[in-house]
Structure prediction request, 961 residues.
Amino acid sequence: MRLELRGITKRFGALVANDHIDLVVEPGEIHSLLGENGAGKSTLMNVLYGLYTADEGQILLDDEVQRFDGPGDAMAAGIGMVHQHFMLVPVFTVAENVMLGHESTRAGGVLDLDSAREVVREISARFGFHVDPDALVEDLPVGVQQRVEIIKALSRNADVLVLDEPTAVLTPQETDELMGIMRQLRDEGVAIVFITHKLREVRAVADRITVIRHGRVVGEASPTATDAELASLMVGRAVELTVHKETPRLGDNALEVRDLVVTSPDGQPLVDGVSFTVRGGEVLVVAGVQGNGQTELTEALLGLHESARGSIRLDGHEIVGRSVRRILDAGVGFVPEDRTEDGLVAEFTIAENLILNRTDGPPFVRGGSLQLDARDDFAREKVAEFDVRTQGIDVPVGRLSGGNQQKVVLARELSRDLRLLVAAQPTRGVDVGSIEFIHKRIVATRDAGIPVVVVSTELDEAVALADRIMVMYRGKVVGIVPSTTPRDVLGLMMAGIAPETEGEAA
Amino acid sequence: MSGQTPGREPENPLDQALESVDAAAEPGLAEELEQERAREREAAVEETGVRWADAFRRIVSGGWVVSVGAIVLAVLVGSIMIVFTDERVQETAGYFFARPGDMLAAAADAVGGAYSALFRGSVYNYQADTLTLAIRPLTQTLTNAGPLVAAGLGVALAFRAGLFNIGGQGQILMAAAGAGWVGFGLTGVPFPLHLLLALVAGILAGALWAGIAGILKARTGAHEVIVTIMLNYVAFYLISYLLATPGLLQAPGSANPQTPRTQESAILPRLVGERFPLHWGFVLSLLAVVLVWWLLNRSSIGFSFRAVGENPKAARVAGIDVPRTTVSVMLVAGALVGLAGVQQVLGTITTGFGSDIDAGIGFDAITVALLGRSNPWGVLGAGILFGGFKAGGSAMQAGEGIPIEIVLVVQSLIVLFIAAPPLVRAIFRLPQPVTRQRRGTPPVRSTATTTEGQA
Prediction:
């Protein structure tokens, strides 16, 4: 089915979220919609899905004008949507989720689960999804849950499939698998709208690319365009994608981790005998597929795991067994993996978040009393220095975009007197413009002679930032290699296969 | 009381837009809208005439108007209850179609009489012969408000730290027992010292009782709602036992489960003369309001309380000891609730008390905290309002023959409406709350923002 959007305009008061957007998606085509957070991609798709009504413009399917009053109409017309945040009932099985909303029943109102199972099996077999119809959704990995969403859409005979930031939650492997699925669907004649802000994915899978900025279509690009071209189109200015850094000047100060073990409450080793050293002035990137112990490793560095055993020495002082407060005081800066969960208090203002871990003494607390003037001056200064885009320091941090939230976390941590910086996934969910900035600040910290540990699941980032790369697999270190190591070697290491030159620096 | 916003168009389309944008799905857009809105607002503020409209908007979109709206709605629904329970209205309704005026007049009479009695009983009795009698109701209201405010603060503080303190009853009982025991048991100590000791004993008892729940929560994760509820029972029956056992709390030579009188040297002095019931307890509650305000908004302890309340995980990562904070919160909350029990024993009922000394304050405190939006000043207002209801309720009953239950119905309706802000907003056509931006700070913009916008 051919989808055409003609002159779609959607206004929210004075703000034009979509400004006369034209888009054509042919059957059997993967059409990528590229744009920054807030560019209006999701608004456009919500218009298409009947969640918003367009102020102007038309939606055409096979050249027939459609009118959607809600997702039900859109679904009936053959539009399927996989949202960024899954719309699944966790305690239902796959089959139950797939039939939810259009349940077929047998006599006496009994649910016809068998037919739903059959549908799941049939679609699953056709595309090689390997999804068990009777598995509980909550037990499934994220990547498989996403397939359930796709099955849901396909089971309603979707000819147009909208994938809204589908890779945001996926590991690199799952992303590759998803791309395979997308290609397969395309070959079956499905029209796919692929919304993303990740350039690599777009170039890998898209047949056509439409770039949206500030609610307008700013151009079409071919998949052969370079990352830099796409990025500048997206952001509206030239963007530096590579990280410039000098050769490291190593200091004598160091973080030394020896035989670190972290166990889960049920006794499973999460970090299993990890040893490494990071000298002042170098960046060690901990690479690996999500969930191989990197998160627990960084948390252990901050003293968040009471089960941590082994030795972590910072500047020669043992910090295992110390309280979080004392480790912070020892000069550990920590950028947590999930900033909204662990890094920020969403309801607190920017100013309050900027002093979140600094309320134990001067300059922000004197005699048990908060020093509001000092806090606000500091906040204004940091908002300017870190280019946090906000109306004011009194805005609750939860109102900021992901990139700006991350800048707040970074501003807080980097403005302390650091002896070590630990940054877990510092650019996850962050727009391209902010990534550039965050990378620069991390490199600046390294150049100030501070040891830096960065966790990243994205190989691009790992290679760009690292002086050395440590790959983890199932809680163990596969190897520590220079950042010049070929990608395919790193890829194998992430699958647990050690390189031949193993232990080069370990 | 209509939701019209003077000056500007009643409903800002941007507000609606912002509300309809799913911030989770599209944070960037929500942010853009927010900024657009703020720009628009700034522009509006620059015209002096519109300044008031803007101020009004901010108030209206906050929670306060909802509180007031809830009270208005409750009073309206209360009127209907009064009309239906009034005997004359029922009589005249029998011949409504012959002479409808009779019933309408009777209904107006009943409602007017009821609420004027409420006013006379709680604020100013304009029918009284002397000024003393005329302003006595107000002092009664404030006397009632004292413990309500203190206990309300205890609940509100816990709320702000993410803890639901249902244990007001138990904490008041233990505080009353502590203060009472020192108040009547300790002899030969001169006035201010004896009072001080009794105060401290009561407050400590309340704090410790709540602290049990805090420790259990911190150490074992036991949910504070269950623990505090069960501690209410434990306290109630424990006190009942102590009151019935000679040599413990029971007055010597008495068969009633009641304590001896509080000694003169431990009684809170009257505030405005012996003819008025108002005692220094109310002043203590006022001080507590200021203290809690400072604690929550200006102190580093309160900062960690709030951080733990809003996001305990982030608080932990920020080096805040969450279990210890939990215990501290409960101790402070219990001390505040204890202050309510202390006022009961050392100020209001000094002739010896029984196990009903909490007088429902422990649970009313939850309502007061909710109505006051867990803000110290709001709690003060809500406490005074409820004190007024208590004082005026008896006047309604005595003067107009309105069942006391109706007053309680009105109170309960307030809570109901408070608990459903969208309902109140819908009825009064108030705008949705869109921003929690505070006043007083000029907007900060980094240099890049003004031109290029979102990058």
Observations:
- The CA atoms of residues 341 and 398 of chain A lie 11 Å apart.
